[in-house]
């Protein structure tokens, strides 16, 4: 006997349609084991009416070809079991799920109807004509062809490990499909012990037009344009900016199919420490990790970071040299307002970047705050005097506490992860140009997931 009768299901769906509650509320009210059942009943009624909730007294039979067509649509559409079931008139998504699991376990043969009961004994066995034995030369030739086919299959396999196939069965079918021009199908199937019926199913799928071909090209283009820095979240946002609305899961699945993975990595290295003790007056921490602001140019933060590059000296020995970056960042949108690059830590570079940042933020209607760590340059009288002159608050992190300036630390982490780690720079000029190019890319083009666009695009939208 069914746990929930037709009348009970109708009552629950009518309660939902009358606005008496959501899925979870109605599940609790009617004592239903899980709210997903309520959602399932509502979807069935919306698609096919209340009659579809009635239990079928006769079992429906489906052909193997019909099951293949439904599975093919499910695997390519990205829709749920229930949505596909409703589209093809199946009583539930559970039935489609069972077909999918059988297909994964047994291949195409798992979709064929199984004969029940004992096999009939009345039919006479067909007389099989014995095959003509092969000559020794033919046997050796076939064995040689089998070995060559097996070797070709093994060579192709690594290329498909990190790519489109989602199952081992699909991977094997794709490799066999590619090798058809070199070997006979019977030899390939024999060498790989792959069922012929399963291969014929996959061959039909591989020869059909790819419904996501256009989307795959766009995803590949975005990934290449951003040098492998974008994951599926930012690619989804980039597609949305182009007017293409697609689910994140679908983007992730297509990226897996195309073998698109981020090549950048994080490597721990010694941080540059500008702290030289108390050489001037240390300002109070006015930010207190309240980094968010809805006003452009109100809160600005800065820090210094160290980079290494390699040059040959007079004796042609490789020497490690250093470069220093001093940026000023707007906490409103993460935009880099100004920066200077120098070969050694010096006050002039920091003061020049500070002056440019103050000039750019002069349009702020409120009193500004410039935040930093307790580095020697930010304790200088000249640095503090510039801020006081323009009535700007000075704020400093607590000693040895990098979390008090996390927006700046986060920026340095992204910068080094995407253009510095894993790359060897052979001159100051080369490294300087790479940093300048990346900062321009970061400000104008690189999507910040939190903002949904680049920092400058966000500022222009909010101030328009």
From TrEMBL:
In Pfam terms, one family for this protein is rve
UniProt biased composition (Basic residues):
115-129
PROSITE patterns this protein is in?
Answer: INTEGRASE
Residue intervals passing through the bilayer:
none
Q: Which Gene3D superfamilies match?
A: Ribonuclease H-like superfamily/Ribonuclease H, Winged helix-like DNA-binding domain superfamily/Winged helix DNA-binding domain
> Which UniProt keyword terms apply here?
Plasmid
Answer whether the UniProt record assigns the keyword Transcription regulation to this protein.
no
Task: For the region Disordered, give the residue spans.
Answer: 110-136
Role played: Involved in the transposition of the insertion sequence.
Q: What is this protein called?
A: IS3 family transposase
Lineage of the species this protein comes from: Bacteria, Bacillati, Bacillota, Bacilli, Bacillales
